[in-house]
Every structure is written in structure tokens, then in C-alpha cells.
Amino acid sequence: MRKILVGVSGASGMPLAACVLRGLAAMPDVQTHCVVSRSAVAVLKAECCAGAEMLTTYADSVYDADDLAAGPASGSWWHGENAAMLVVPCSMATLGALASGVTRNLVHRAGDVVMKEGLRLVLVTRESPLSAVHLRNMLVLCRGGAVIMPFSPGFYLRPQSLEDMLLQTSGRIFDQLGLTHNLTRWL
Q1: 3-state secondary structure of 72
Q2: pLDDT tens-place values along the chain, 187 residues long
Q3: Is there a cis peptide before residue 159, judged by omega within 30 degrees of 0?
Q4: Which residues, in sequence order, are bridge partners of residue 6?
Q5: What Rg, from alpha-carbon coordinates, does the chain have?
Q6: Where does the record locate the signal sequence feature (predicted)?
Q7: Rounded to whole angstroms, how far apart are CA atoms 38 and 23?
Q8: Which of 26, 53, 54, 72 gives 110 a disulfide partner, CB atoms 3.0 to 4.6 angstroms apart?
């Protein structure tokens, strides 16, 4: 059983977060945990006219973003499991917090713990253009073992809809997490 924690921060891209969580929920060998930050809830309302339940309904366990005593805040919670963490979408504020070791919420703290424990951390960024500060933070995290994965769908699969692009990107995320899926990789 794989333990995957999905952190959702306040960047644009909530339809991708929902698509990824739906995909994880359909995997019988994956236990999905979810943390939705307060800023993510505001973006969800703006982009999808929905609340956090649009995402959390697909998770096996849900944690309050302000609960720094929750299981994922501790290194021992992660042990004994084939575990990984994903932040989708990953805001530049969350990226900066992770790069500097500042933990203001459970998404930040869990990401910090995952890095110190040497586990897989995938950060799906969406911001564009990127400043020198953003790029420096990405480099710091990449050198620390995180995977920086911009939400930039490929067009070689000739997507016909937004859903096609979301599914293709979800498949690439699942690949980075080492998860088996049947989403199309190539023509």
C-alpha cells in the first residue's frame, strides 16, 4: 500500500488537483491523504465555485492545514510506508516556504519533513513568468531532492479538451510518484 499525501496550496490550477485526487482514489493500492491550505480554499471558490470538499471527497484521510500536530507533521508518521508527497498546485509562497524551511501550515511542515526524511516530494508549479527568486527557490529544492514539475501539458498527444490536458499531466505526476496507471504517455 502506497501512502500519498496531497498538499493543495493557493495557486491557480484546482482542476488539476481534482483530477489527480480522482485518479489516486481509483488506485486500490494507494492510500490518499489530503491537506488543503486556507488560500487554496479561496482559489477553489474563484476557479471552481466550490469548497474544499470538491477535493477532500477523494481522500482517505483529510487534515486541517493549521494542525501542526497532525500525523504528517512528524517523521515517524512517514516510516514503514512506501510514502511520498505531492503539492498540486504549488504556489510560489509554498515553494519559498519549503526552500527556506519556514513552516506556517501543515503543507509546509509535511513537505519539510518529507525532505528531511529523504522521501519523494513532487511540486507541481503553475506560476508564469518566473522571477529569479522563484528560480533560486526551485534550484534549492531540486538540490534538496524535490522534483519541480511545472504544469505544462504536452501537445504531442493532440489534446481535444482541458480534461485531456489534465489527464496527461496527472499521468506524468503519477509517473514521478512511481505509481502504475493506464493514462496515455505517447501517441
Answers
A1: helix
A2: 999 999 999 999 999 999 999 999 999 999 999 999 999 999 999 999 999 999 999 999 999 999 999 999 999 999 877 999 999 999 999 999 999 999 999 999 999 999 999 999 999 999 999 999 999 999 999 999 999 999 999 898 899 999 999 999 999 999 999 999 998 887 5
A3: no
A4: 34, 86
A5: 15
A6: 1-17
A7: 23
A8: 72
Number of other CB atoms surrounding residue 128 within 10 Å: 10
In the chain, what are the helix, strand and coil shares in percent, each to the nearest 5? 45, 20, 40
Show the cell assigned to 7.
498538499
- Annotated domain spans of the chain: 6-176
**Does the pTM exceed 0.90?**
yes
User: Chain-centre distance of CA 157, in angstroms?
Assistant: 23
